[in-house]
């Protein structure tokens, strides 16, 4: 962490000469050779200024913090803060290795690796077969809610913490292999193969788990990609964190409840305030695509819940969100 006197991309510089491709490539090659990744930061983008006022102002992001993959996984809540520059042309950096994340309720997510388990479909079928005394659409909602609850219980019972299970199996495999060092034993060989197969299966599920959360589409699943997907998820989670917001009185708020209140009040005033413009003149110029006949069809009452909905739920591309 410090002043590297280089930028990572052309967007990290404002004013002056544009960094050459060779210059950027050399810096990236050094980071790749050292196995370093750029840590996410909060605060001003540019960390150095030449402080000129004659039209030749130059600003750059040359103060950065990097870490290897192992450190990033160990300190997955680490955050770099760029503070205001006082008495210097550089902004100071502060590294907080345990910055508390804003905990929010996690939405239910259909895990992509569930489809590889033969016991998943019966759980959905059983939950979907439950009957409810509701309207047609109400029954669909209740069935989906029941499926969610059953799948969460099934996942907790069969998988729990994937990474903990992987650690336990790796210890068991190492123990078996140490015993094999003393000589051949058919039971130990069989145990080694069984544990190895379970490990490969869990590694694949773990990679699918983090691939789904990383939203990386250009890299296919593979044996060595789980860490990459995990790091991508950490980066996205840290980037989306809101550490502070300015309220209506111009005061910065850092408490989670205060930040939530600012966001709530903003949208409340946005949607409750009277419209400032009549858009009828614009809407009249738009040709309607939904005819009266289509509109009547859309308002028809749902007459039945088709079982193929279950097939769609199981076979859909769950990596898309």
UniProtKB/TrEMBL annotation:
Superkingdom: Eukaryota
InterPro entries named in the record: Endo/exonu/phosph_ase_sf
Gene3D superfamilies, alphabetized: Endonuclease/exonuclease/phosphatase (3.60.10.10)
Matches recorded under SUPFAM superfamilies: DNase I-like (SSF56219)
Alphabetical list of PANTHER family matching this protein: BNAC02G09200D PROTEIN, DNASE I-LIKE SUPERFAMILY PROTEIN
Protein name as annotated: Endonuclease/exonuclease/phosphatase domain-containing protein
């Amino acid at each position: 962490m410090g002043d590297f006197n280089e930028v990572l991309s052309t967007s990290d510089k404002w004013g002056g000469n544009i960094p050459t491709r060779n210059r950027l490539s050399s810096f990236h090659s050094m980071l790749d050779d050292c196995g370093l990744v750029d840590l996410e930061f909060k605060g001003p983008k540019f960390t150095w200024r030449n402080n000129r006022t004659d039209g030749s102002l130059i600003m750059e992001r040359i103060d950065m913090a990097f870490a290897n993959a192992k450190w990033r996984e160990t300190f997955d809540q680490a955050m770099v803060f760029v503070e205001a520059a006082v008495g210097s042309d550089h902004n100071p950096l502060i590294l907080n290795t345990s910055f508390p994340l804003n905990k929010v309720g996690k939405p239910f997510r259909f895990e992509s690796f569930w489809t590889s388990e033969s016991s998943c479909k019966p759980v959905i079928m059983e939950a979907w077969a439950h009957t409810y005394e509701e309207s047609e659409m109400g029954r669909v909602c209740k069935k989906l809610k029941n499926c969610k609850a059953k799948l969460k219980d099934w996942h907790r019972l069969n998988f729990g913490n994937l990474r903990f299970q992987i650690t336990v199996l790796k210890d068991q495999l190492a123990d078996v292999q140490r015993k094999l060092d003393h000589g051949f034993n058919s039971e130990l060989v069989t145990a080694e193969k069984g544990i190895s197969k379970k490990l490969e299966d869990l590694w694949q599920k773990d990679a699918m788990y983090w691939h789904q959360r990383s939203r990386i589409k250009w890299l296919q699943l593979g044996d060595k990609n789980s860490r990459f997907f995990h790091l991508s998820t950490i980066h996205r989670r840290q980037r989306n964190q809101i550490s502070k917001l300015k309220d209506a009185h111009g005061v910065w708020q850092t408490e989670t409840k205060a930040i939530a209140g600012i966001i709530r009040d903003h949208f409340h005033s946005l949607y409750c305030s009277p419209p400032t413009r009549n858009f009828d003149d614009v809407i009249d110029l738009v040709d309607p695509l939904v005819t009266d006949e289509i509109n009547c069809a859309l308002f028809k009452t749902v007459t039945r819940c088709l079982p193929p909905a279950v097939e769609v739920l199981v076979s859909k591309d769950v990596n898309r969100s």
